[in-house]
Design goal:
This protein is mostly helical. The protein has 32 helices and no strands. The longest helix has 29 residues, at about 210-235. The protein is globular and about 90 Å long.
């Protein structure tokens, strides 16, 4: 298909780039100002808390670490630099992030000026600057901001390389792809696309210079990724280009119980703190190995994934279809924080997110394909967008994983809008009808009624705010309104359970217990509610009922420290010392924090039959390895 305009483009002037930056930064500053009074503004939620703890260690001097990366490392190191230079300030982090987010808008504008119509830089400027999901993600303590920036940087480097055909820019494209892989591992698929495309171009056209472009990309990739792989080998004895979580993530999105979005490997264990622990423990049990290596853990879960695909191919294909629909749907599916909760605190995001959805963006980009054609590098932009989308579907879909896809779509949509008027005047009626039909179909598919999906996302986020307000600040009173907001959006066992716990903390034990029972009505095997109700029964002397609920909690998750410890207390109340000691020992073995270990040891030291624990502990110590062995020896 012919290009809109095949004449060479000169780079946009500095004034245009500055205008893009000011508009994008201004909107993001307005968004931050509207949020700054929210009680959760300074909280690090979900993965954000893990990144903060990791980054604080880096800022404190632990730049190397002591084990193979399990999560992509670029964002924690980015935070570590900020903390080292500016201290642990949530506001400073957000300000740096919105500056980088505004910079991504500039990169897309510069890229558009080289690939599209002369006015494309201005059209592409408006879309990224005003895209509400980008504004929202730029202010979160999540790596999505860097994902979007890295994809924009990849597109810009490729546009410059195509325009100037210099090896430097192809090397920069390789380096940008590597950085993208260090924040979003599935971006490795994009590196393959670029290398294959450059190899095909060199084979078709010929010339050492063409082959040199592929070599420069490979060199850029190697320069960034090799130090990471060597670091992983130095600390863990295994080469991993980025991280070692491919297997668990692949299985989470491809198993008989998969929903298409994120699900924890163990029930009620969705917090990022548990991801590596649960993946390793379950793999160890499945492999019959006490301490599997990161590669063994990953391969175990990859094997389970392919076992499922071979055993249930029709079910897997249906699951892939569901994930494809989740990928393109306008609803932003969240795992913790959600734009549908955040927009309740700011008029700017509220207004923009109701109009400019991902579905609208996808429809504009689909229509732009008719306008832009496949020349001047657009074919590789389309390929990068399509392959990134497929790489998300291969795992699981939620808003943070999908967000980088907006970078090429915004580039396409902006350039398409810039050239649409002239194209419309010269295109045939059939081509105009085709473009309109594509956009209409995409709008229909992406905005197909989703029932309670938006309410579900808001409920998830409000519950996350409640969890972290209580866990990080001990603010039960402040957390309760968020739980009630979650329940008003969508009742769930998790919300009723959390409300029950918080009400009990605030002194209303009767109302708290009623909420816990409501949670178990919705989900009789909800571990948190079973545990909390069991503890409440122990505290009020209803020992038989307590034993029922606590054993049920351990059936859900056998390493539940609180349930195991209170089972010991309950059996002590029944004067069954042997079972009490057994459960105190099991609680000790399940303890994942020094304070919990000390509680168990202190209980056993003071217990009149504490000596019964010694043979149990010795038997366990004989099989223990690593940190566990050192702890028992002490």
């Amino acid at each position: 298909m012919a290009d809109v305009d095949s004449t060479p483009r000169s780079g946009p002037r500095l004034g245009m780039a500055l205008a893009v930056f000011v508009i994008a930064l201004g909107l993001r500053c307005m968004h931050l100002f509207e949020l700054h009074d929210a009680d959760w503004f300074g909280l690090y939620i979900g993965d954000g808390e893990v990144y903060r703890e990791w980054a604080l260690g880096i800022a404190g001097g632990d730049w190397l670490g002591d084990r193979v990366f399990y999560q992509a490392p670029l964002y924690p190191y980015f935070l570590g630099v900020i903390y080292a230079l500016g201290g642990d300030s949530p506001l400073v982090v957000r300000l740096v992030q919105i500056i980088i987010g505004a910079g991504a808008c500039v990169l897309l504008a510069l890229c558009a000026a080289r690939l599209g119509d002369r006015r494309a830089g201005w059209a592409a400027r408006v879309l990224p600057a005003c895209y509400p999901q980008a504004i929202y993600f730029d202010a979160l303590f999540q790596k999505s901001m860097l994902d979007f920036f890295c994809f924009a940087l990849v597109l810009y480097a490729i546009a410059r390389a195509l325009h100037e055909e210099r090896a430097w820019w192809w090397g920069a494209a390789g380096g940008a792809l590597a950085l993208f892989m260090l924040t979003r591992e599935n971006a490795a698929a994009l590196a393959a696309v670029v290398l294959v495309w450059l190899g095909w171009r060199a084979w078709r056209v010929g010339g050492a210079r063409r082959w040199g472009a592929a070599g420069a990309v490979a060199g850029g990739l190697t320069a960034v990724l090799l130090p990471v792989a060597l670091r992983n080998y130095a600390v863990g004895g295994e080469f991993h280009l980025t991280s070692s979580q491919l297997g668990p993530n692949l299985y989470i999105g491809n198993n008989p119980d998969a929903s298409g979005s994120y699900m924890s490997l163990r029930p009620s264990r969705g917090h990022a703190d548990y991801e590596r622990i649960d993946a390793t423990e379950l793999a160890a049990a499945g492999l019959g190995i006490a301490a599997p290596t990161p590669r063994q853990v990953s391969r175990y879960w990859v094997g389970k994934t392919f076992d499922y695909v071979r055993a249930q191919p029709a079910h897997w294909l249906a699951l892939m279809g569901r994930k494809a629909h989740l990928l393109v749907h306008a609803v932003e599916r969240a795992d913790t924080e959600s734009i549908y909760a955040v927009r309740q605190y700011g008029r700017l995001l509220w207004a923009m997110s109701h109009v400019f959805t991902f579905g609208v963006l996808l429809a504009l980009a689909g229509g732009a394909v008719w306008v832009l054609g496949t020349g001047r590098g657009w074919a590789v932009v389309y390929a990068l967008a399509a392959v990134y989308g497929l790489s998300v579907i291969a795992f699981f879909v939620f808003d943070r994983y999908r967000h980088p896809l907006a970078a090429p779509l915004l580039l396409m949509a902006g350039c398409g809008l810039a050239g649409a008027a002239r194209w419309w005047r010269t295109a045939s009626a059939g081509r105009r009808g085709g473009a309109v039909a594509v956009m209409a179909v995409l709008l229909a598919v992406t905005h197909w009624p989703s029932g309670t999906a938006v309410a579900e996302q808001r409920a998830t986020a409000e519950l996350a705010y409640a969890n972290e307000l209580y866990r990080q600040r001990g603010d039960a009173a402040g957390a309760i309104p968020h739980v009630r907001a979650s329940l008003s959006a969508r009742p769930s066992a998790a919300a009723y359970s959390k409300l029950g716990v918080l009400l009990a903390v605030e002194g209303d034990a009767t109302a708290g217990e009623a909420m816990l029972r409501k949670a178990l009505t919705l989900n009789p095997r909800f571990g948190e509610a079973l545990r909390a109700l069991g503890v409440a029964c122990v505290n009020t002397g209803r020992i038989d009922e307590a034993l029922t609920h606590l054993h049920a909690a351990v059936d859900v998750y056998e390493q539940d420290f609180v349930a195991l410890y209170h089972l010991g207390v309950a059996y002590d109340r029944k004067l069954d010392a042997n079972r009490a000691i057994d459960h105190y020992v099991r609680a000790l073995l399940a303890a994942d924090q020094p304070a919990k270990v000390e509680v168990c040891l202190d209980t056993l030291r003071r217990h009149p039959f504490g000596r019964l624990a010694i043979p149990r502990l010795r038997a366990w110590a004989a099989d223990a390895v690593g940190d566990d062995a050192a702890r028992l020896a002490a």
